[in-house]
Write a structure and sequence with these properties.
The complex is a heterodimer of chains A (135) and B (154).
Chain A (H helix, E strand, L loop, with lengths): L1 H55 L5 E5 L6 E5 L2 E5 L8 E4 L9 E4 L5 E6 L2 E5 L8
Chain B lengths: L1 H41 L6 H12 L5 E3 L6 E7 L5 H7 L9 E8 L2 E6 L9 E10 L3 E11 L3
Parallel strand pairs in B: 2-5
Antiparallel strand pairs in B: 1-2, 3-4, 3-6, 5-6
Classes of the chains: A alpha+beta (135), B alpha+beta (154).
Chain lengths: 135, 154
Amino acid sequence: MKKRGDTTVLWFFIEVIAALLIGYTIVDASVSVSKGKIYEKLNIAKDIAMQINTLSGVSGNAYIVNKNLHGYSLRFSGNMVEVFESSLEQSKGVYYFVKIGDSKLDIVMSKPKQVVVAKINNEIIVSEDIPSQLK
Amino acid sequence: MKLNKKADIIGRKQVFYVVAIFVVIAAFFVVFSFISSDKSKISELPSGLENYLIVQRFLNSPICFALQDADTGRAIPSTIDIGKFNEASLNRCYNAQGTNVKAYRLTLSYDDKNIPIRTGNWEGFFTRAETRSVFVFDGAIKKAELLIETQNAK
């Protein structure tokens, strides 16, 4: 009787641990997927911020076209770029750049096909199309 | 004899389960730590890249300190116009808002002069410094050194 009781307790613990492992797997897998998206958004935000910083060091006029945006929306405000699927979501990709001159970047782009970062006459401009001055 | 055999099997199973549980738990942590660290590396910027790009702005952009030919409008890289080397120009060319971007203190040394300027978000201590050989235009073009001190974003 006693041995059977011991076995039952052992099985109980095994089941508890198995349940915890399964729970952990589900939670962790969802966190990983979520993290993957965060990294993707962060990657885009960093890329665009670096492009703004790079163009700020160019002495003439220039532009860079970004096409791999994976359907995300973008918001430029102050010295910050945010990449997100929905404006309400918590896990946005955010990165900072430093403006040059009188550049005033305050623009929201809803799932754009491309983003063009341009420097024209000491000003950084972000738009969906290549500025006419540079065509 | 039969009872002993059963007890023996149960004993082996117990050892197996204990070992298996530890192995499975360890495997889970190893696999997930690999996934997580691999993805975080994807979005890492190469060390020093951001700083390099910003320093290029100081040296090459006519809106910062680069000497600009009045006739052609051409900017001369790594040649500092002493007339532009002041905090007003620095804060115009490096429009830092708050402490979420790097802060800079630049000290230009030529002849016997040392001219320090700093960005609006500089808070008095530095984490990194480098010296660049540049030219300065002060009536004539002279050799100079630019000490670039950097504070990381907070």
